[in-house]
Amino acid sequence: MNTLILISSLGGFAMLADILKLRKLVYPIALLGLIGAAALAALDWNGGQLAPIFKGMLEFDHFAILFSIVMIVTLFFWLLMSQKYLDDEAHAIDHIALVLFALVGGLCMVSYQNLTMLFIGIEILSISMYVLCGSNKNDLSSNESALKYFLMGSFATGFLLFGIALIYGATGSFDIMTIADSIGENYQDYNVLVYSGVIMLLIGMLFKVSAVPFHFWAPDVYQGAPTHVTAYMATIVKTAAFAAFFRLFFVFSTVTGAWLDILTVVIALTIIVSNTTAVFQQNVKRMLAYSSISHAGYMLLALISLSALSINSVLFYTAAYSIGSIAAFTVLLIVASGKNDLSFDAFNGLAKSNPVLAFVMTLAMLSLAGIPPTAGFFAKYTVFNAALNGGHTAIVLIAVIGSLISLYYYFKVIIAMYFKSGESDTYQLANVQQLLLVLTSALTIALGLFPDLILRWM
Amino acid sequence: MSAIQVVPIHFYILLSAVLFSIGVLGVLFRRNAIIILMCIELMLNAVNLLLVAFSSYMSDAAGQVFVFFIMAVAAAEVAVGLAILMMIFRNTKSTDIEFLNKLKH
Amino acid sequence: MTLYLFYILSFVAILSGLMVVFSKSPVYSVLYLIVTFFAIAAHYVLLNAQFLAAVHIIVYAGAIMVLFLYVIMMLNLNKEVEPHKPIAVKFAAVIAGGILLITLVGAMRSTQSLSKAENVNSQIGLIENLGTVLFRDFLLPFEISSVLFLAAMVGAVMIAKKDKN
Fold it and tell me: What pLDDT, on a 0 to 100 scale, did the predictor assign at position C79?
């Protein structure tokens, strides 16, 4: 709970500092505050208040604490990444404040025990993201991405609320524990309301995680938004959405008849469609958008087996994926700002001019593709393992084929860097960015070799 | 004597389903972003009506308090949505959602 | 008597909802939406949620619709000619809305068997009961929605205001 209070007050302080002319202080204090928040979250670990607090609104169980730490660490990396960009930005302070408020929304989505907190958490996260997407005001594609994300997001919230209303009608309460018990007991008499409520919730949440039939907004929004905001959306927003998805659908594990087969079809579609369309992309940022949709498919795969193993695998997957994409987006931000062109040729000959960047980008691409030494491989391994335990071999086969296809477009970047010749000046990196690149690469390798760093906590 | 004792809950569910579908129809039908925003408000109102009907059917005030939060969020959403529309109108002189697609390609 | 009132109000709400979608100029849509909000507020009064009806009128008809009218007037969008989607897309939209309606109504048909509410405590809609529930059970969402409003305000000002350069 105190992480929530600390981060909201950090956001408030960021805006106050704007008035008190302490603008220079905001960035370092935000970084320190995040370290403090991660420490406070860890302190809650051994049963600080494992019982739900505030009349059953939030519960900081191990699930919530671990996902909060993953999001706080990713936001720490994000701040390191976009430090140069935030300096010359007219609304730098608003950016930091909105990013912190979005994290507050994410924390509520991760630890809710009552559907009201899920709804408020999703709304805080989404409203901050609508604004951040449109923050680059004179760029038309940023405007378009904000409008598209806003219309799709509120449309999805309409479905989510209709689902919540139907579930409330069937079970008489918003608390997910009472919902789970009452669905379990009298499963027969009013299961129409439960069934349609679960389907509506599924539609609403699938919009938020951009699974295939509802993914049409994602590529344009990811491409239109400023690059550092796209990095935020691909990592923290996705982690929060998946944690909320899992927390919600573990409640409906007794009614799997209603949603499991639909979800299996959605996963197959997500993996096939996103990987095949990513192959034809010329723009690296749009390719990363489609790769983010394909990773959404892999993460959903872990949900099917509905076991403790699936929570473990999703936690590891979100951590590995967030670190990999932060590294990839950092290199993309540096290369794109140098050449302001986001196609694959921007990376031509990068290995010769700045080998460090090329190495970090290669590591990130290997992690996203799932090649052994990196964390991405082990993430996919645990997810496939969880799904196989659940006995869903067909869908795991499709997932493996999908990740084979994904090798093509991830290696397209590596080939462009190492085997294609092209002139590009050496970019001098701010020391903050160098620290970030070293940190992310070390973490990717460390998680790849010793996955127990994360797996043993759950 | 509340209406819920006379009107079966089934009618309220159908009414809110109809209003919800009209909202969805409006979002898909129109090109003017402001009308789409209004239809999203209509969808949220259909959900509010359903929640109040269930809340009085079960004599449990939690549903009505949840409607408070939906209204609060809808107001915040409309404020941000209209701000985005203002920004787009300033750049493209139109709130037509197809217009942006044409410009980008 | 309440049954007829229910039918009238539902008819008014559905008709003005349709008019919102199919009316020519945005100002007419806003007015029809206000009529829908009044019909829904009347439904709340019928359901003994009097305080909610008042808040509904103030927040929706009072604040949000005024914001809509203000933006429509500011962007002088009141002109008749309005770009329309091609006929095929509009037809597909109507079909999609129709299918959603049919599935929802079909799915909900079996809720007819739900019995009518017997011992309904009609005091839950009054303000002191809502107040206790809001500030006792729903205290945390009440506090966290202040963060929501702060983010919305910062965002709306940051996006809508012209930059100084």
Answer: 65
- Which of A116, A132, A162 to probe by mutation at the B interface, max B CB count within 10 Å? A162
Kindly report, residue by residue over A277-301, the tens digit of the pLDDT: 999 988 888 999 999 999 999 999 9
Q: Which of C144, C153, C161 to mutate to test the interface with A (most CBs of A within 10 A)?
A: C144
The pLDDT assigned to A335 comes to 86
Q: How far is C165 from chain B (nearest CA, A)?
A: 15
Q: Is A188 helix (H, G, I), strand (E, B) or coil?
A: coil
**Confidence at residue B25, expressed as pLDDT on a 0 to 100 scale:** 94
The residues in A 59-118 lying below 8 A from C, measured between CB atoms, are 90-91, 94, 97-98, 101-102, 104-105, 108, 114, 116-117
CA–CA gap between residue A407 and residue C65 (Å, rounded)? 51
C25 near B CB under 8 A: no
Number of neighbouring beta carbons within 10 Å of residue A338: 16
Note down the domain range covering A39: 2-455
Interface probe with B: pick from C16, C34, C44, C153, most Cβ of B within 10 Å: C44
Choose the weakest-confidence range: A12-26, A68-82, B64-78.
A12-26
Distance from CA of B30 to the nearest CA of C (A): 7
Tell me the percentage of chain A whose pLDDT exceeds 90.
Answer: 47
The β-bridge partners of B32 are: B96
* Count: domains in chain B: 1
CB contact under 8 A, B57 and C117: yes
Number of compact structural domains in chain A: 1
Instruction: Classify domain C1-104 at the CATH class level.
Output: mainly alpha
Full-model pTM: 0.93
Query: If you count residue pairs, one on A and one on B, with CB atoms under 8 Å apart, how many are there?
Result: 106
CA distance B48 to chain A (A): 8
- Enter the DSSP assignment of A141: H
Q: Choose among A57, A58, A91: nearest Cβ to C158.
A: A91
Q: Is A175 helix (H, G, I), strand (E, B) or coil?
A: strand
Buried b (16+ CB within 10 A) or exposed e, C22-54: ebebbeebbbbbbbbbbbbbbbbbbbbbebbbe
pLDDT at A45: 79
Which pLDDT belongs to residue B101? Answer: 66
Contacts of A117 in chain C (CB under 8 A): 140-141, 144
| A193 vs A402: CA distance, rounded Å | 36
| Structural domain of B43 | 3-104
Q: In CATH, what number is assigned to the domain containing residue B47?
A: 1.10.287.3510
CA A123/CA C150 separation, integer angstroms: 12
pLDDT at residue A9 above 60?
yes
> Residues A348-366: pLDDT tens digits?
888 888 888 889 999 999 9
pLDDT digit string, tens, across residues A316-340: 999 999 999 999 999 988 888 766 6
Q: How many residues does chain C have?
A: 165
**Are B2 and C55 inside 8 Å of each other by CB?**
no
